[in-house]
Amino acid sequence: MLRVARDRLLLPAVMAALLILALAYWWLDNGPHEIFGTLMFGLLGWHLTMNRRWFLKLRSGHYDTRRWVVLVTHIWLGITITVLVVTSVLISRSVLSLAQFTNNVSVIELHWFSAYWVVIIVAVHAGTHWTRVMTVTGNVLRLSPSPIRSGILRLAALLLLCFGAWSFFVLGVSTKLTFGYSLEFWDFTSRVSPFFAHWTVVMAGVAVLSHYAMTCLRLLDKTRIRSTEGQT
Ligand code: HEM
Ligand code: HEM
Questions:
Q1: Which ligand is nearest the CA of 14, by number?
Q2: Measured between alpha carbons, how far is residue 120 from residues 27, 130, 148 in Å?
Q3: How many Å apart are CA 206 and CA 171, to the nearest integer?
Q4: How many folded domains does the chain comprise?
Q5: Rg of the chain's alpha carbons, rounded to an integer?
Q6: Using CA atoms, how far apart are residues 229 and 232, in angstroms rounded to an integer?
Q7: How far is the CA of 44 from the centre of ligand 1 (A)?
Q8: Nearest residue CA, atom 23 of ligand 1?
Q9: 126 close to ligand 2 (CB < 6 Angstrom)
Q10: Could you tell me if 34 and 55 are in contact, meaning their C-beta atoms sit under 8 angstroms apart?
Q11: For residue range 49-93, what is the model confidence (pLDDT) as tens digits?
């Protein structure tokens, strides 16, 4: 059980934390930024190896709407993370300092542009798997179903959604995702922790949206199946 908790809960949580940490480039400086980013990519290798069965089963079974959504999210995530890895190798000044391939501004811009997209799609990805995360958490903590706990969690999800929308605006995420150049950088000399809090709730808010979108699709699928069964 502890291994399941480590692989299915701790590992994704550490990866998400490293991702947010790497965003704080101007607080960390180049060396730590590259080390945390490289660590994240290393853990990603572990995450993908552990979930390799998903890739092996791609060609079998039936594809309903939810399975298509998960597939498209993984392709999208795969593309953006590949761009992030490739640009990291190209612009590295510390980890691969001997082989610094380029200083080209467009490659650097592509690096941070893909980084912001990775953050958002990882949140969508986590949201699409949230039911599994909750099931694993319930099993690890040996929790039995409780309507009070469900109500509290739903309220927390609503709050995260509201705070996430506010933080999305505060951080100017839409400008970052549209390749818009913003002169508004986070001022780390005056505040550090709000930067991490804002990015965390942006990710949580997107994950909540994605989780409930999957819940709606599940309900729609059930209704469709019931109505076709009723007709036959
Ligand atoms: C910071 C990055 C990432 C985080 C936080 C994250 C998080 C998660 C979580 C919470 C789960 C469900 C628990 C589990 O089964 O392990 C999961 C599953 C999975 N993730 Fe990720 N993930 C990340 C990156 C990626 C990337 C880049 C890919 C490649 C496309 C990927 C592919 C998968 C696959 C194939 C599964 C299993 C899906 C299934 O069995 O239905 N993940 N991930
Ligand atoms: C989790 C993975 C990573 C994320 C999310 C990320 C994100 C970012 C962001 C947002 C910036 C721009 C800072 C700014 O100008 O506002 C940046 C800059 C940079 N990153 Fe990364 N990065 C990651 C991994 C890496 C890795 C692994 C390397 C190298 C091995 C790297 C090398 C660099 C360099 C050299 C810059 C400075 C570019 C410049 O302005 O001259 N990054 N990164």
A1: 1
A2: 21, 15, 30
A3: 14
A4: 1
A5: 20
A6: 5
A7: 9
A8: 122
A9: no
A10: no
A11: 999 999 999 999 989 999 999 999 999 999 999 999 999 999 998
Alpha helices by DSSP H, listed for the chain, are: 2-5, 11-23, 25-28, 30-50, 52-56, 65-91, 105-128, 130-140, 147-170, 173-177, 193-231
Q: Is residue 3 exposed (0-12), middle (13-18) or buried (19+ Cβ within 10 Å)?
A: exposed
The domain in which residue 62 lies consists of 2-231
Q: Which of the listed residues 15, 107, 111 should we mutate to test ligand 2's pocket, taking the one with most ligand atoms within 8 A of CB?
A: 111
* Span from the CA of 220 to the centroid of ligand 1 (angstroms): 24
List, as own/partner pairs, every contact residues 2-7 make where C-beta atoms lie below 8 angstroms and the sequence separation is at least 24, other chains included. Answer: 4/136, 4/139, 4/140, 5/136, 5/140, 7/50
* 47 within ligand 1 shell (Cβ under 6 A): yes
Question: Ligand 1 pocket check: which of 53, 129, 200 to mutate, most ligand atoms within 8 Å of Cβ?
Answer: 129
Nearest-ligand number for the alpha carbon of 100: 2
Single out the residue of 135, 148, 124, 117 nearest to residue 208, CA to CA: 124
pTM over cut 0.85: yes
